Amino acid sequence: MIDSITIERIQSASQIYEVVSDFVTLKKRGVNYVGICPFHEDNTPSLYVSPAKNLYKCFACGEGGTAIHFVMKYEQLSYPEALQYLAKKYGIEFREIKMSNEQKQIQNIREAMFILNSFAQKTFSTNLFDTKEGQSVGLSYFRKRNFRKDIIQKFQLGYADSQRDSFTQTAIRAGYKQEYLKKTGLSIIEKNYTIDRFRERVIFPIHTLSGKIVAFGGRILKKEEKVAKYVNSLESEIYHKSNELYGIYFARQAIVKYDQCYLVEGYTDVISMHQAGIENVVASAGTALTQGQIRLIRRFTKNITVLYDRDTAGIKAALRSINLLLETGLNIKTVLLPEGEDPDSFSQKQSATSFNNYIKKNETDFVRFKVELLMQDAGNDPIKKVQILTETVYTIALIPEEITRLIYVKECSYLLDIDERLLMHNVEKKREELFLQKKKNDKLQLQKTEQQNTINNLPSLEHNLNLSFPFYEYETNIMYYVVRYGEQYFYYEYEDEGTNELISANLNVIEFIVSDLEEDEIELHYPLYRKMLKEGYEWCKKNNFIAEEYYKNHSDIKISHFAVDISTDKYIESKVFSQYKETKVNEEKLKTTKQSQINKMLLKEIPYVMLNYKNAILKHRVETINKQIKLAEKGNNFDKQKELISQLSGLLKTKKVIALRLRERIITKL
Ligand SMILES: [Zn+2]
Q: Which stretches does the record call CHC2-type zinc fingers (predicted)?
């Protein structure tokens, strides 16, 4: 746990715009900012950032929250880790007090792995520069590649020596645990032997977006047939291959600056291009491009240029992964490099300017590139020509924008010498097919998700599940006032039932609701709300307690999500509230009115909301007792029947009183 003063300081220092714009390009729109949401496949900017509310919210996927939540979600950090990140960003001294064991464990594992990776990187770098083997094998290899020292240091390149467990021994001597050596995959530890994963290889550390090392790639320099040229870290708690792109940490700013990203194949391509001054470049490094990697690029730009060398096997493999890019509506250009060159060798012969000029002159859009390439391959073979047509139709059908599809149909009908209408017809047919297929897949996916009961990213589904809690709608309505106005005091008068005396009280909203529920011995049914109300009651007497801030910044993500939804008015439009619409206050109007009017509003609204809730509970009880009476009748159980009927008449009396008060409320509202 982190002490509450530090948390408060971090919360108040963290400006949502500053935090989000480190990762997402934001454009001003009115008083807010908008950007492409990094949490779903976003085509139009759906992510809203409100500096005034200090919140972000995606109106497509529902993700939203404070700066802390954004960092948690984006960097996949725990709550304390996110606080630490923000403390660092804003130069706030970070003190920790005791954490729960579970928190400690999770955080410790991840942190220990990052720390160990950082230690490994330093060890490999020292090997490279300061040992004989490192210099003669590793450094001389990089020199042969013409890598400058500053570039080697920037990318934190290194060397793992040829002894079987020298790194493992070094790490253990330095106090690192075997457990983490195994988890990070740096060491292969079995019952009867221990061995370094990386031996006699130059090392390329793989950085996250925020610059932490999640994994390593190692390239062997000797020509041995039985040994893989590249070895990579295994997937782990911190490393998911399909979500990382080599070079993204160093490329991020340049990608935003030029609104464009080069995609290459290998580590050395990225490094050489950097050295030539072209920094907006990343590599998928050994894997076929994945959705996760595309999302990573899309956070920064929609324009991707794929660089190919002329090795045909490589091109064909790459062509397949490009279909993925098309589907997401990215603008893809391709450039074939001159015969015998790859991005690495080519950029070494160029300045940044001449390199960029070559690209400008030679880039073609992807569809044309693909068709031309396939045509060269097919020659005059009619069967192959049909295959090209099928392939082309498929590729064009993947493109989301209609206008872009039309342009390609025109162009390809010319290239393939095929009637334009015929091609169009086939594309539309294919699209329909793809659409149906997708619908089927989505349905399957949804079923799977429902089965697994993982409802995190499906707010509507979660909502439906919640609806099965009794009185969920009524309790949500109560919680609206708890979150929105919890700390507001309002002057309240009521008639004491015993003495008929008029009693006045000055309670805040939370206190009123708690005491009102207690009076009738009612507890909220929905566990999350119960927890929120209980905590709010404990905190609301503190001097500067503001309910909305308290809940929004809550470390329980469910609570803060709920509070964020409430303060971004999602619930007001939802079905849950439609039945209370007439009771809802006009928020805009309210802002301009005085405190006294807020009090007036609360005085009107809150007792009404509470009465409505109690009325619903009573109605339910009456129904239950009626059922029980019928059962008792059937069983000829007269005593039971009598008892139930007297209970019922008591309930009905109370219900009448409530109904009367409700009617009064409605009348006074008119
Ligand atoms: Zn979203």
A: 37-61
Distance CA 659, CA 485 (A): 26
Strand partners of residue 35: 47
Output the CATH code of domain 250-428.
3.40.1360.10
Query: What digits encode the pLDDT tens for the residues 201-211?
Result: 999 999 988 78
C-alpha of residue 299 to centroid of ligand 1, in Å? 12
Under 8 Å between Cβ of 295 and 38: yes
Distance 567 CA to ligand 1 centre (A): 18
Distance 260 CA to ligand 1 centre (A): 22
pLDDT at 664: 65
Residues of the chain with CATH 3.90.980.10: 101-239
* CA–centroid distance, residue 515 to ligand 1 (Å): 40
What's the sign of the alpha-carbon dihedral 618, 623, 624, 630?
A: positive
Could you confirm whether domain 4-89 is CATH 3.90.580.10? yes
Q: Is the ipTM of this complex over 0.90?
A: yes
Question: Of 399, 402, 401, 207, nearest to 296 (Cα)?
Answer: 207
Vertex 150 angle, CA 229 and 170, to 5°: 55
Q: Which of 234, 215, 191, 217 is nearest to 270 (CA)?
A: 217
Nearest to 113 by CA among 101, 105, 102: 105
Q: What angle do CA 469, 470, 474 make, to 5 degrees?
A: 105
Rounded distance from Cα 236 to ligand 1 centre (Å) = 26
With 0-12 / 13-18 / 19 or more C-beta atoms within 10 angstroms meaning exposed / middle / buried, residue 307 is: buried
Q: What does the angle CA 581 – CA 582 – CA 584 come to, to the nearest 5 degrees?
A: 65
CA of 573 to the centre of ligand 1 (A): 19
Question: Which tens digit of pLDDT belongs to each residue from 450-459?
Answer: 444 333 333 3
Dist. CA 61 → ligand 1 center (Å): 4
Positions of CATH 3.90.580.10 in the chain:
4-89
**Ligand 1 center from residue 1 Cα (angstroms):** 30
CATH 3.90.980.10, applies to 101-239: yes
**Cα(586) to centroid of ligand 1, in Å?**
28
